[in-house]
Amino acid sequence: MSAHALAGLAALNAFYLTCGLAVLWLVRGWDTWAQLARLAGLAYVLGVVAIGLLWSLLLIVAVPFSLGIVVGLPVVIAAGAAVAARRRGRPWPSRTPAGSHRRLVVTAFGISASVLLLAGFFRAARLSGLYWWDAWSFWVPKAKAIYSFGSLDVGFFTTLPGSSYPPLIPVLDAAAFHVMGSADVVTLHVQYWLFGVAFVWALAGLLAERVRDWILWPFILLVLVAPRIGERFLVAEADLFLDYLFALASVLVLYWILDRERWQLAIAVALMSGMVLTKREGLLLAAVLVGAALLASARDWRAAWPALGIAAAAVAVVAAPWRVWYIAHGVAGEAPTDGLDPTANAERLFPSFRLAFDVLLSSEYWSVLVSVALGALLLALLTRAYAVVVYFGALVLLVTLGGGWITWAVPELEITQELGANPIVRYMGAAALACAAASPVLLSIAWRAVTSQEESS
Amino acid sequence: MTRLRWWIEWPAGIVRIGVAFLVAVAVVAVVVRYPDVLRHAGRDAARNSDLSYSDREIAGGNGLVGDQNAVYAARGLIPENERYKVVVDPGFGGGSAETVQFVDSFYRYFLIPRRPAESAPWLICYACDLEPYGQRARIVWEGADDISIVRLTE
Q1: Contact status of B18 with chain A (Cβ, < 8 Å)
Q2: What is the total count of domains within chain A?
Q3: Is residue A457 part of a domain?
């Protein structure tokens, strides 16, 4: 790790943030500086996904991946989005008076406690070696190949393990290598730490729009201390990154169901597009998200379903080129061979789904994130917040059933929580983070329902 | 009394108690885990900081490669544009139980942009039998545990 590598990484991440801020300015607009600061985490994630998607798609169509592309594309996107925003008449953010004293105290406490933990995680990340099997056996080799050869080298990409896994994460790693000046796999952990920081910021910023501070911050901190989440922020693999996108997209889709503001769905589509180019499971999780949204918006299906259909089609269009590339190069597909035959592996059916539910409910992995979310669903149900309950309930249930399906349909997977023998624990991180996003929203809705009743009477 | 009723009236009071209870559960879980997580991160940071440069760079390969010098020798000796092959004798006794099966994966990661190939002018040899190569095989580096880097001449 050198100062040069860290400076390069800082510059790249400044590009991500600037680009995301400009795109969000274009599609949403900024009312106040405080709002911009609150949503800067979401802007960063959007910037990473938007730039990463374009890099990936260019790479798939054989445009060489060079330092020029790494630096030039974010500049073009940021400048283009900013000019378009000004032409659309988006105003500069304005200054607003500070919030109430109590709110500020709770927020300051939550931010301080989060920053202290994140600083601890940074110290662990900055000099970490690359220990994780999947990381050094294929994620980082793919990145090093892109960095070294400037292309999806067929010899490497078709022979490595996980060869059908999409290229977004290796592309982001390769971009980091370019700006660091070498394939510095030690400093690379700082990039993953930054993804984690941005996720926490994005989740807190998004939820803060609707959730009371005293409900919000315990759950943000709970995400950070949950055994399989915060301490894995440095792991140079795709699992948590996929879960971040899923959790943030799930909040945006819910907000769209409630508000019907186009920017919410537009950004959710960008994040879902990122999901399908991050991991194979991204396709399943994107389908789950759309499925839950269809169920939750069934009462208003005439207005909602066409928009969701267009969103799903847009995600499918982004997903297609990579699938064409690997099929064209003779790489085996993503779907389990027996996956759609209900009679195949019948003896595995019940144990597979039980395994998925066992993992979902395990406090050993997720602390109390899931159990509290189930309680929050019940309370929101009592206050008749049906759309939100159906949405989050369906989301968590469908993710879990998806996990069971994966184990059931792939006979090579042992029915075990052992990490090397079955990916179920890693996969179920998506459900856990969805619970982390759901709990504060559900509790805040329930609380508002019973306190506003009283205020109005 | 009014305050108490606010908490126990049906169903609003029960919902209030429920919300407060679940937030309290989250707070307790955070309070219980927070110090451990912070301590653990500090311990990891100290451990990473104490590693030698080679331990940190080889990291996941430390249990596989047998001799760290071998991977550095391979990287130093094999030009970036040339191909290599990792040949491991099934009876290789060094390294760990996983070495025989997985050490070639580690070299593939570590040596990029050098490419692995079945027919290559460089061999990374883990107690391998060089007899079939005859005079073509020239050992250019030899380390512990019968690991060697071999150049095959035409």
Answers
A1: yes
A2: 2
A3: no
Whether A101 is covered by a domain: the verdict is no
Which of A368, A441, A444 should we substitute to test contact with B (largest number of B Cβ atoms within 10 Å)? A368
3-state secondary structure of B151: strand
Nearest C-alpha neighbor of A443 from the set A258, A253, A210, A256: A210
pLDDT in tens, A409-421: 888 899 999 988 9
0.90 exceeded by the pTM?
yes
pLDDT at residue A72 above 80? yes
Q: How many CA atoms lie within 13 A of B81 on its CB side?
A: 0
Domain boundaries, chain B: 2-50, 58-152
| Domain closes at, from A316, A335, A354 | A335
The answer on A71 and A134 residing in a single domain is yes
Does residue B144 belong to the interface with chain A, where contact is any CB pair within 8 Å? no
Q: Helix (H, G, I), strand (E, B), or coil: what is residue A373? A: helix
Q: Which domain holds residue A231?
A: 1-92+107-335
Which two structure tokens, joined as six digits, stand for A219?
Answer: 């759950």
Whether residues A155 and A49 fall in one domain: yes
Say if residue A259 is in the same domain as residue A194: yes
Q: Indicate whether A350 and A327 sit together in one domain.
A: no
Verify whether the Cβ–Cβ distance B41 to A439 is below 8 Å. Answer: no
Q: Do A186 and B57 touch (CB under 8 A)?
A: yes
A153 plus A253 within the same structural domain: yes
- Contact residues, B window 59-118, toward A, CB-based 8 Å cutoff: 59-61, 105-106, 108-109, 112-113, 115
Contacts of A80 (CB under 8 A, 6+ apart): none
Would you call B60 and A136 a contact, using CB atoms and an 8 Å cutoff?
yes
| A442: chain B residues, CB-CB within 8 Å | none
Q: Over range A133-152, report the average pLDDT.
A: 96
Query: Which residue, of A307, A335, A363, is where some domain finishes?
Result: A335
Q: Which of B26, B38, B44 is closest, CB to CB, to A219?
A: B26
Query: CB of B140 within 8 Å of any CB in chain A?
Result: no
Q: Which of A152-156, A342-346, A371-375, A424-428 has the lowest mean pLDDT?
A: A342-346
Q: What is the pLDDT of residues A309-334, one digit of tens each?
A: 999 999 999 999 999 999 999 888 76
Q: How far is B76 from chain A (nearest CA, A)?
A: 16
* Residues ≥6 apart with Cβ < 8 Å to B36: none
- Looking at the fold, whether A147 and A127 belong to one and the same domain comes out as yes
Residues A417 and A368 in one domain: yes
Does the structure's ipTM exceed the value 0.85? yes
CA dist., res. B119 & res. A411, Å (int) = 35
- Hey, are the CB atoms on A121 and B113 less than 8 Å from each other? no
A377, A309: one domain = no
Q: Which of B11, B16, B30 shows the shortest C-beta gap to A222?
A: B30
Closest by alpha carbon to A26, among A89, A76, A81?
A81
The pLDDT of B28-48, averaged and rounded, is: 97
Residues B63, A126: Cα–Cα separation, whole Å:
22
